[in-house]
Structure formats: C-alpha cells, structure tokens
Design goal:
Strand content: 5-15%
Order of helices and strands: EHEHEEHH
Strand order of the largest sheet: 1-2
Radius of gyration: 19 Å
Oligomer: single chain
Number of strands: 4
Structural class: mainly alpha
Largest sheet: 2 strands, parallel
Shape: elongated
Length: about 90
C-alpha cells in the first residue's frame, strides 16, 4: 500500500485500494502525534483520589489515552507511511 501525493484517483488506485493523501494531512497527523505525546503525562490527575466506574481517574485517563494513541497510530500508518519503505519491501520480494 503506497501513499500518493496527487488528489485524483486513477482506476487502478480505486481497484487496488491505494491511499491518496497530501502533505497537509500528513503534517496534521504529525501535529496530532505531538499533542498526544504531550498529553501522555497527566500531571493534573496525579493527586486526584476520585473513582469513576470503580477505577481511579488516572487509570481511566490512561485507558482512554491508549485507545486514542492506537487510533492515531492506525491513521499514521494508513496516511503518512513513507513511499520508500513500500518500494524496498517490493524489491525484497522480487
């Protein structure tokens, strides 16, 4: 699966399921990665003893954080994967 920089889909791309994206989407995902990195250390929940759904609020925060990080990693691999990695993998299979 390769990432293309053009905005139009060819018939081959539609049938093979190639992902088409542009640099602004890629940079938006990189910016989201920085935000997720900064949100990882939740210093505001450190001394909060309250329970939500029977779990400490800090633990619940990290459960939500894990789902958010997994979703972001999915989007990064789907839309910001470098082209040269796919070309090297195809060369290795030949």
């Amino acid at each position: 699966m390769s990432v293309r920089k053009s905005a139009t889909l060819t018939a081959e791309q539609k049938t093979t399921g190639e992902i088409v994206t542009n640099k602004s989407v890629r940079w938006l995902l990189y910016a989201a990665w920085v935000v997720v990195y900064l949100l990882h250390n939740d210093l505001w929940n450190w001394h909060d003893p309250s329970l939500v759904l029977g779990l400490p609020v800090g633990l619940l925060y990290h459960i939500g954080f894990c789902f958010m990080a997994a979703g972001l990693l999915f989007l990064l691999t789907r839309y910001a994967w470098p082209d040269y990695l796919d070309s090297k993998a195809q060369e290795g299979k030949s």
